[in-house]
């Protein structure tokens, strides 16, 4: 769903902007603190500057979503928290209505991601925690996918290596708490899955396959 609020600052054009109660400046623009109900049913309570949402405020969407945080020239900009209708939540930086910078996303299945964002996508360094297993991915993201160097941290071992297109790929190693390392590489294997009927398109399934090359012992193998 869109998390961009409705516009409400074209009074000179004679557009119905809904109801408003609050401060105005000498030009009769919404300026200062105010409360507004927009024509689409959304509401906003907070600071205005020259007719635009600017400063701290709370925007409630009629579908149940809510944003509490900073605005600049009617766009979410700065620090803010967004509650989505499906129950997920984002806390962190915004730039011109998009998740940009550092933030934490709480997903409806219990997973969390904390790290860098760009244009609404996980991008840069970050940690994704899988709620069902407790496994963590710590590493690099590009356009929402695991890409580059990273670690998969499990309960009693971890994998350290490279990732590509969200899969482990290339050289890497497993470190086990019992005191050994397993070196090798991941190779991506493609398998074509036929559709149920002639009209259905073929589906390409990519599966990472681990190929071990050697095993070594390590000392003081304790990982937190």
From TrEMBL:
Predominant localisation class: cytoplasm
Keywords: Cell projection, Cilium, Cytoplasm, Cytoskeleton, Flagellum, Meiosis, Repeat
Pfam families in UniProt: MORN
SMART domains: MORN
Keyword check for Transferase: no
GO biological process, any: axoneme assembly
Biased composition (Basic and acidic residues): 21-32
Bias (Acidic residues): 1-14
Stretches for region Disordered: 1-41
SUPFAM superfamilies the record matches: Histone H3 K4-specific methyltransferase SET7/9 N-terminal domain
Gene Ontology cellular-component annotations: motile cilium; nucleus
Cellular compartment(s): Cytoplasm, Cytoskeleton, Flagellum axoneme
Function description: Functions as part of axonemal radial spoke complexes that play an important part in the motility of sperm and cilia.
Designated name of the protein: Radial spoke head 1 homolog
């Amino acid at each position: 769903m869109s998390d961009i609020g409705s516009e409400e600052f074209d009074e000179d054009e004679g557009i119905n902007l809904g109801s408003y109660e609050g401060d105005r400046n000498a030009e009769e623009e919404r300026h200062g603190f105010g409360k507004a109900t927009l024509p689409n049913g959304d509401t906003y309570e907070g600071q205005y500057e020259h007719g635009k949402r600017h400063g701290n405020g709370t925007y409630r969407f009629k579908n149940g979503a809510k944003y509490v945080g900073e605005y600049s020239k009617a766009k979410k900009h700065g620090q803010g928290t967004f509650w989505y209708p499906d129950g997920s939540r984002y806390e962190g930086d915004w730039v011109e209505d998009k998740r940009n910078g550092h933030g934490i996303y709480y997903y409806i299945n219990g997973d969390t991601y904390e790290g860098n964002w760009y244009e609404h996508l996980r991008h840069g360094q970050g940690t994704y925690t899988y709620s069902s297993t407790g496994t963590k991915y710590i590493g690099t993201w590009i356009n929402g996918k695991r890409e580059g160097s990273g670690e998969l941290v499990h309960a009693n071992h971890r994998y350290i290596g490279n990732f590509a297109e969200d899969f482990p790929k290339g050289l890497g190693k497993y470190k086990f708490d019992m005191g050994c390392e397993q070196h090798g590489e991941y190779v991506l294997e493609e398998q074509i899955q036929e559709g149920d009927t002639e009209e259905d398109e073929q589906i390409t399934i990519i599966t990472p396959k681990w190929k071990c090359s050697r095993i070594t012992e390590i000392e003081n193998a304790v990982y937190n």
